[in-house]
């Protein structure tokens, strides 16, 4: 696993990009042809930035899913500080896996309160591709290590985590699935149901 290159301290190692099965071409076709307001609502469930959602919606149609995901990444990289603040304000603490022990809830709640007091926004972390126990360990380790970042370093890390979350949520919207990695669930839109997925 190669660490993400960020200025200053590297808070947590990067994880591999999405391991989900890609959406079907039919799902992309539906995304490309759906009414703009419906697409924007779905996109805002992926990342609470109107600028990001408008940019993705306005550049349809996409020839393939990789092009859509590249556009999502590019739009996320181009978020202004105000856009980032707005997107972070729409986030909530990651949901712990079912059966997580009480001490984990207490530890994550306490660390989250300290994080929000220090940085002024919810802790965000992408746990896609991890088992529930790995996700819990990754979230707890991540929040503890990121508390040592200075505010500017943490904005860079949080922006990268938001980009990764938006990418995963966008795949889920196309597949008609819900993202269990956070409590920020995307709506399941009938037009985007991918019936070819296992």
From TrEMBL:
Per UniProt, residues of the Oxo-4-hydroxy-4-carboxy-5-ureidoimidazoline decarboxylase domain are 32-89, 104-170
Q: Which Gene Ontology MF annotations are present?
A: 2-oxo-4-hydroxy-4-carboxy-5-ureidoimidazoline decarboxylase activity
Q: What is its EC number?
A: 4.1.1.97
The family database entries (Pfam families) matched by this protein are listed as: OHCU_decarbox
Query: What InterPro entries does UniProt report for this protein, alphabetically?
Result: OHCU_decarboxylase (IPR018020), OHCU_decarboxylase_sf (IPR036778)
What EC class is this?
Answer: lyase
According to its UniProt entry, the protein's GO biological process terms are:
purine nucleobase metabolic process; urate catabolic process
The reactions it catalyses are:
5-hydroxy-2-oxo-4-ureido-2,5-dihydro-1H-imidazole-5-carboxylate + H(+) = (S)-allantoin + CO2
Residues of the region (Disordered) are: 1-30
Q: State the UniProt keywords alphabetically.
A: Decarboxylase, Lyase, Purine metabolism
Ranges of Polar residues composition bias in the record: 16-30
Q: In which pathway does it act?
A: Purine metabolism; urate degradation; (S)-allantoin from urate: step 3/3
Task: Say yes or no: keyword Lyase present.
Answer: yes
The name on file for this protein is: 2-oxo-4-hydroxy-4-carboxy-5-ureidoimidazoline decarboxylase
């Amino acid at each position: 696993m190669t660490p993400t290159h960020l200025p200053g301290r590297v808070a947590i190692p990067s994880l591999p990009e999405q391991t989900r099965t890609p959406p079907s071409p039919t799902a992309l076709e539906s995304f490309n042809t759906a009414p703009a307001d419906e697409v924007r609502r779905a996109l805002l469930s992926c990342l609470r930035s109107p600028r990001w959602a408008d940019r993705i919606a306005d550049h349809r149609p996409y020839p393939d899913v990789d092009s859509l995901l590249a556009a999502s990444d590019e739009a996320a990289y181009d978020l202004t500080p105000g856009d980032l603040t707005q997107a972070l304000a729409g986030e909530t603490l990651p949901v712990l896996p079912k059966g997580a022990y009480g001490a984990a809830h207490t530890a994550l709640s306490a660390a989250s309160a300290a994080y929000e007091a220090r940085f002024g926004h919810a802790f965000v972390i992408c746990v896609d591709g991890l088992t529930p126990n790995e996700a819990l360990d990754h979230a707890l380790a991540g929040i503890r290590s990121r508390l040592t970042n200075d505010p500017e370093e943490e904005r860079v890390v949080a922006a990268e985590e938001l980009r990764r979350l938006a990418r995963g949520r966008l795949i889920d919207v196309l597949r008609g699935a819900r993202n269990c990695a956070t409590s920020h669930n995307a709506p399941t839109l009938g037009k985007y149901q991918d019936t070819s997925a296992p």
